[in-house]
Every structure is written in structure tokens, then in C-alpha cells.
Write a structure and sequence with these properties.
Leucine-rich repeat, LRR (right-handed beta-alpha superhelix); binds 2-acetamido-2-deoxy-beta-D-glucopyranose; alpha/beta; 12-stranded mixed β-sheet; 20% strand; 374 residues; 20 strands
Length: 374
């Protein structure tokens, strides 16, 4: 009787131990399905110089270079592969990263991914797998900057409701900015710069109220600047330069309180420079160079403003240089060249530390630093 009880409790203990072992084993190594998805992803890439994929062996993929797992579920949660890195592996190789190949659609099997960074590898080609928005609904960061990715931005990009960072800059992406983008209610950083995007900017982009940086420069975007940008009250950095945007600069941009950098240079913008833009005391960098802006320069500068860059060159501005510019706290780089300005250059700061190139190629500006006397 006693012996029976003993053996029974022994059996229970053994069973418990076995159970513990199974549970422990199943959470300590990465799930086989995740491991094989990673291996498929690796198989479509070629990294010849650093050997980062040499670490991609063994059963526990959570230890592989650039792979991170959720500590409780052990599911793959992060892929962080940067071609520009201070990692010793890069130092040893004495070079930055380089990869060819493309992004495998097997990435979409890693449905618990929160971070996908495959950045600055220079020569990864192919398209963004179309299955990403539908499959990777936990993604917070999608960063594929600095490759040679082509094709369109997936039309259903807006279904990744957790996305905070979308960086597809410096690729060869074509097509237009998908309308669904404005559904990314948590988006903070949007960088689509230096691609081949065409079409217009969604007029309801202002729905992205969490956004603090929006960089769309260096594309072939047409149409006008959506007024709704002004509703993004956290927006600090807006760069739409080097596109083919037309129409006026919305005056509402002048009343944005956090905006500190506004680059609209090298477009085909017309109309006058909104008064509120020049009196906005938060704006530090304003580049409106190389457009078709006309009219006079509003005399609305004030002691509250501080410009490290005020570049209004290559427009059709006329009239004289406003005297209130003398009251501005600081102007670092001022460029009024290549316009139709006329009259006396005011005496005093900031004009006394600028050289003639800031005023070159106007109609009849005179006084120091120009050679022409008034
Ligand atoms: C302003 O934009 C123009 C044209 O895109 C560019 O050449 C210039 O360097 C920019 N100015 C500054 C100060 O960055």
C-alpha cells in the first residue's frame, strides 16, 4: 500500500518534470516555423563581405545576428539589419554593408514582427512584398532606407495600424502615395524621400496627427500642397523640396506652432509668400528657393524670429528688402539672389555679415555689400 503511494507520487513528479521540460523547451528555442521563414528570407539575399548570415545557423534563431525574439513567447519580433553600423563586424571588415537579392515574401510568416529594418545595403532590389500590410499587423517600424527597391508602396499600407515609423527613402519606388496611408493614425515619422513617386499628395494627409516628420522630397510629385498639413500640430519638419508641386503655399502653414523646418525649394510653386510664414517665430529653416513665387516680401519680420536658413533665391520677388529684417534675432544664411528686388540694402545686422552673393542677380539692389551705390 505504502509502496504503491510512493511509486504513484514518483510517477506524478516525473510527469511534472517532463511537462516542465516540454514547456521550457518549446519557449526557449525559436519556433521551427519562424526559423524556417528566416532561412527563406536569408536565402533570397546575398551578403558577400561581412558574413552576417554565417551566424544564422543552429536551432535558436533568437541568437542570430540582427534577430530579436519576444522574451515570453520566443516568437521572432525584430529583424534589424543595418548596412551602416558601428558593430565590430563592420570595423573588422573595414567597410560598410552591401547586399544583393530581394526581400522574400516569407517575411510575412513572421506575423509577430514589430520591427523590420533592412537598411542601407545599397543593392537590394525587387519590390516590397505585397503581403506585408496584410500579414504584419504588429509592425511598429518598417525601415528599408538606402536600397534599390522598386515597385509600388503596397496600396493597403494603411492597414498596419500600429506603424509609427515608415522609412522607404533612397530607393527607386514608383507609383503614387497610397490614399490608405492617411489611416496610419500612430505614424510619427514618414520618410519617402528620394524615390520616383508620382501623382499628388493625399489631400487628407492632415489626418496623420501624430506625425512630427514628413519627408517627401526628391520625387516627382505633382498637384498642390495640401492645406491639411497645417492640422498636424506636432509637425516639426516638413520637406517637399525637389518635386513638381504647383499652386500657392497655403497660408495656414504659417500658423503651425511646432514647425521649425520647411523646405519647399525646387518646385513650381506660385503666388505670394504667405505673411504668416515669415512672422512665424518657430520657423528656423525656410527654403523656398527655385520656385515661381512673386509679389513683394512682406515687411513682417520681428524680434521673435531666428532663421538659421532663409533662402528665397531664384523666384520672381519684387520690391525692396523689408526693414524689419533688421529686427530679427539672428539670420545665419540669407539668400535673396536671382529675384527682381530693387532699392537700398538696409544697413546693420544681418546685412553686414553677408556677402554680395546673397543679393546677386536682382534688378536694382544697391548699397553694401553690392558694388552699385544708391
Ligand atoms: C535651398 O534649396 C536650393 C534648391 O533646392 C538648394 O540649392 C540650396 O542649397 C538650399 N539652401 C540651403 C541653405 O540649404
Amino acid at each position: 500500500m505504502e509502496r504503491d503511494m510512493l511509486s504513484c507520487s514518483l510517477l506524478v513528479t516525473l510527469l511534472l518534470l517532463l511537462l516542465l521540460l516540454i514547456v521550457n523547451f518549446s519557449v526557449s528555442a525559436c519556433p521551427e516555423a519562424d526559423r524556417s521563414a528566416l532561412l527563406d528570407f536569408e536565402a533570397s539575399l546575398n551578403e558577400p563581405y561581412l558574413g552576417i548570415f554565417k551566424t544564422w545557423s543552429g536551432t535558436n534563431c533568437c541568437n542570430w545576428y540582427g534577430v530579436g525574439c519576444d522574451p515570453t513567447t520566443q516568437r521572432v519580433s525584430d529583424i534589424v539589419l543595418r548596412g551602416e553600423s558601428t558593430d565590430p563586424m563592420f570595423e573588422k571588415a573595414g567597410r560598410s554593408g552591401y547586399m544583393t537579392g530581394s526581400l522574400s515574401k516569407s517575411l510575412c510568416k513572421l506575423d509577430k514582427l514589430t520591427t523590420l529594418i533592412v537598411a542601407d545595403w545599397k543593392d537590394i532590389t525587387g519590390e516590397i512584398p505585397a503581403c506585408i500590410p496584410g500579414s504584419l499587423s504588429s509592425l511598429h517600424i518598417l525601415d528599408l532606407v538606402g536600397n534599390r527597391i522598386s515597385g509600388w508602396i503596397p496600396v493597403d499600407i494603411g492597414s498596419m495600424s500600429k506603424l509609427k515609423v515608415l522609412n522607404l527613402a533612397d530607393n527607386q519606388i514608383t507609383g503614387s502615395v497610397p490614399g490608405s496611408l492617411v489611416k496610419l493614425g500612430d505614424l510619427k515619422h514618414l520618410d519617402l524621400s528620394n524615390n520616383k513617386l508620382t501623382g499628388s499628395i493625399p489631400s487628407d494627409i492632415g489626418k496623420l496627427t501624430m506625425m512630427s516628420r514628413a519627408l517627401l522630397n526628391g520625387n516627382q510629385l505633382t498637384g498642390s500642397i495640401p492645406v491639411s498639413f497645417s492640422k498636424i500640430y506636432r509637425l516639426a519638419d516638413l520637406d517637399l523640396s525637389m518635386n513638381k508641386l504647383t499652386g500657392p503655399i497655403p497660408s495656414q502653414l504659417g500658423s503651425m506652432h511646432v514647425l521649425s523646418t520647411l523646405n519647399l525649394d525646387s518646385n513650381q510653386l506660385s503666388g505670394q509668400i504667405p505673411t504668416a510664414l515669415l512672422s512665424n517665430s518657430g520657423l528656423n529653416i525656410l527654403n523656398l528657393s527655385r520656385n515661381g513665387l512673386e509679389g513683394g516680401l512682406p515687411d513682417v519680420f520681428g524680434p521673435g524670429t531666428y532663421f538659421s536658413v532663409l533662402d528665397l533665391s531664384y523666384n520672381n520677388l519684387k520690391g525692396d528688402i523689408p526693414k524689419t529684417l533688421l529686427s530679427v534675432k539672428f539670420v545665419g544664411h540669407l539668400d535673396l539672389s536671382h529675384n527682381h528686388l530693387c532699392g537700398k540694402i538696409p544697413l546693420g545686422s544681418p546685412f553686414d555679415h553677408l556677402d554680395a552673393s546673397s543679393f546677386d542677380n536682382n534688378d536694382c539692389l544697391c548699397g553694401s555689400p553690392m558694388l552699385r551705390t544708391c
